[in-house]
C-alpha cells in the first residue's frame, strides 16, 4: 500500500455522523414497510421460476441478471458512515463491505466498483486517503475502481456500486435454506461494541471503558478493524458450491440477518453459538448493544451460510483450505423466525 | 427526581452518561432521561435492564417532537453479577 501522508485535519471522522458504519442502515421493519408501501414484494422466494433472466432482485443482497447461459451479472450498492476515524481504514472497510454483497451471491469474478463518496466541507482533505483505502482493498480482491461520484454531505459517507460476475447456476441468495441445514458464520461478531470502545477510548469515559474491557481497547479495536477489512471473497469461493442459502451479516446483526434468511427460505433458524471478538461482550453490556442476543449491528461482517448436512464436511474442508475462519452458529428448522437456544458465546482472538 | 438530558449525544455516550448518573443515585431513587438519538432509547433500555435497573417509558414527560424519548430509570433491584 506504500507510504501515506496523513491529512492535516485532526477532526475525528466518526464525530461527523450520528450513526456509524452499518448502524446507519434503515431498520429492517422500516425497510420492509417502505418496500411494501412502494408496491415491491420481498416475501419468500422459494419459487423463482417465473423471474426470467432476473435471478435476484429486491430483497436480495444484490441484483443478478442472466446475460448468457454461462454468465450472470451481479450488481449492488452499499455505502455508510465512518465506523473508524482513520480515513484509509474507513475506505478499506467500506470497499470490503460493498463487495461483500456481491460475494454473498457467489459472484467473485470481474469485480469493479463505482465509488460513492460524500464528505463535509471541512473533511475534504480526507478524500484521497479514503479512496486509496478503497482502491487497495479492491486490488486485494482483483477488483478496481472504475469511476464514481463525489458530493459534499454533512455526514461522511463512503462505499460503492459493485459489479461482479458468476455462472448463473452458481448465483446464491438468502432463499434456499432447508430444514436440517447447518448454519456457518465466517467472521466473529462484535464490531459495533469494538468500534464504540475506540470512539470513547480517550474521552471522559476512557477509564470506564478501559475498566470494563477485559483486554486493551486498542487490541479489541485493531482486531475488529482486521475483521472488517477481511474480504469475504475466499469464504464465498469456498462455500458457493455447497450452500443452499448464502448472505452476509451487516447492520441487522446476526439475528436480523438470520430472520431474513428464515423468512425468505420459509424456514426457522436456531442460533446455538455466537463467536465474538474477545472482550466485546462486556463492552456490549456497557453500551447496551445486545451482542449476546445476536442483535448488535455488524459492519462488514462475515458470510452466513446454510449448508445441507451431507455437504457440511466438504464445506468445512473448502473453508479450511482457504484459511477462512468459520464456526457453526446454528441450524435450520421447519419452524419460523429466529430462536436463540442458550447460545454459547465463544471469544475469538487473533 | 434527578434528570439527565442526552440530547445530541451520539452512541455509545448516552449509555455511559446515564450509567455515571445512576452511580450517583441512592437506592430507590429514579432518574429521568431524555434524548433524541434514535438507537439510544433501545440501547439504554438494554444496558440498564442488563445491570438490574427498572426502566419505564416516560415519553409523556418530554415534548413529543420527532424522535425525542423519555425514560424513567429506577435503582433498587438487585444488580446482576458481572461476568
Describe it for me?
- The complex is a heterodimer of chains A (350) and B (83).
- Chain A is an alpha+beta fold and 350 residues long.
- In chain A, 30% of the residues lie in helices and 26% in strands.
- In chain A, helix 2 packs across helix 3 (127-139), helix 4 packs across helix 6 and helix 7 packs antiparallel against helix 10 (312-321).
- Chain A has two domains: 13-170, 2-Layer Sandwich (60s Ribosomal Protein L30, Chain: A); 182-348, PurM-like C-terminal domain (Phosphoribosyl-aminoimidazole Synthetase, Chain A, domain 2).
- With 83 residues, chain B is of the alpha+beta class.
- Chain B has one domain (2-74): Translation Initiation Factor IF3.
- Chain B is built from two helices and four strands; from the N terminus they run βαβαββ.
- In chain B, helix 1 crosses helix 2 (38-50).
- Chain B has helices at residues 13-23, 38-50; strands spanning 2-5, 30-35, 54-57, 69-74.
- Chain B has a four-stranded mixed beta sheet, covered by helices on one side.
- Chains A and B meet through helix 4 and helix 9 of A and helix 1 and helix 2 of B.
What is the CATH level 1 assignment of chain B? Alpha Beta
Strand arrangement, largest sheet of chain A?
1-2-3-6-4-5
Please report the total strand number of chain B as a whole number: 4
H/E element string of chain B? EHEHEE
CATH superfamily of chain B: TusA-like domain
The CATH C-level class name of the largest domain in chain A: Alpha Beta
How many helix segments of chain A? 10
Total beta-strand segments of chain A: 12
Q: Which keywords apply here?
A:
heterodimer, A: 350 residues, alpha+beta, 60s Ribosomal Protein L30, Chain: A, Phosphoribosyl-aminoimidazole Synthetase, Chain A, domain 2, six-stranded mixed β-sheet, globular, B: 83 residues, Translation Initiation Factor IF3, four-stranded mixed β-sheet, 2 helices, disordered C terminus
Amino acid at each position: 500500500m506504500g507510504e501515506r501522508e496523513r491529512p492535516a485535519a485532526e477532526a475525528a471522522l466518526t464525530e461527523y455522523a450520528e450513526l456509524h458504519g452499518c448502524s446507519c442502515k434503515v431498520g429492517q421493519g422500516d425497510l420492509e414497510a417502505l418496500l411494501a408501501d412502494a408496491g415491491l414484494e420481498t416475501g419468500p422466494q422459494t419459487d423463482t421460476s417465473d423471474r426470467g433472466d432476473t435471478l435476484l432482485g429486491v430483497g436480495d443482497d444484490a441484483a443478478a441478471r442472466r446475460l448468457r447461459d454461462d454468465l450472470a451479472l451481479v450488481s449492488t450498492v452499499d455505502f455508510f458512515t465512518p465506523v473508524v476515524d482513520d480515513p484509509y481504514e474507513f475506505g478499506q472497510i467500506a470497499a470490503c463491505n460493498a463487495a461483500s454483497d456481491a460475494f454473498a451471491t457467489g459472484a467473485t469474478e470481474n469485480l469493479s466498483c463505482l465509488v460513492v463518496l460524500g464528505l463535509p466541507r471541512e473533511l475534504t482533505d480526507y478524500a484521497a486517503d479514503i479512496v486509496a483505502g478503497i482502491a487497495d482493498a479492491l486490488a486485494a480482491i482483483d477488483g478496481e475502481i472504475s469511476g464514481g461520484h463525489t458530493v459534499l454531505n454533512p455526514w461522511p459517507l463512503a462505499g460503492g456500486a459493485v459489479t461482479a460476475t458468476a455462472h448463473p447456476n452458481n448465483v446464491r441468495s438468502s432463499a434456499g435454506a432447508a430444514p436440517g441445514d447447518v448454519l456457518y458464520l465466517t467472521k466473529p461478531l462484535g464490531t459495533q461494541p469494538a468500534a464504540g470502545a475506540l470512539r470513547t477510548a480517550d474521552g471522559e469515559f476512557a477509564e470506564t471503558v478501559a475498566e470494563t474491557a477485559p483486554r486493551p481497547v486498542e487490541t479489541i479495536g485493531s482486531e475488529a478493524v482486521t475483521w472488517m477489512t477481511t474480504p469475504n471473497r475466499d469464504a464465498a469461493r469456498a462455500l458457493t458450491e455447497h450452500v443452499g442459502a448464502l448472505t452476509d451479516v451487516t447492520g441487522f446483526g446476526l439475528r436480523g440477518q438470520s430472520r431474513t434468511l428464515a423468512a425468505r427460505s420459509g424456514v426457522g433458524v436456531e442460533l446455538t453459538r455466537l463467536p465474538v471478538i474477545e472482550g466485546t461482550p462486556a463492552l456490549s453490556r456497557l453500551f447496551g448493544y445486545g451482542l449476546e442476543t445476536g442483535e448488535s449491528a455488524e459492519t462488514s461482517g462475515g458470510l452466513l451460510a446454510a449448508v445441507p448436512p451431507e455437504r457440511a464436511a466438504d464445506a468445512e474442508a473448502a473453508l479450511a483450505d482457504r484459511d477462512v475462519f468459520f464456526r457453526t452458529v446454528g441450524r435450520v428448522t421447519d419452524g419460523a423466525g429466529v430462536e436463540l437456544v442458550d447460545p454459547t458465546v465463544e471469544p475469538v482472538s487473533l | 427526581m434527578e434528570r439527565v438530558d442526552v440530547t445530541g449525544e451520539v452512541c455509545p455516550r448516552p449509555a455511559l452518561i446515564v450509567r455515571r448518573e445512576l452511580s450517583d443515585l441512592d437506592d430507590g431513587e429514579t432518574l429521568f432521561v431524555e434524548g433524541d438519538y434514535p438507537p439510544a432509547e433501545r440501547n439504554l433500555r438494554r444496558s440498564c435492564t442488563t445491570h438490574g435497573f427498572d426502566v419505564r417509558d416516560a415519553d409523556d414527560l418530554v415534548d413529543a417532537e420527532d424522535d425525542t424519548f423519555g425514560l424513567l430509570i429506577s435503582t433498587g433491584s438487585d444488580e446482576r453479577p458481572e461476568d
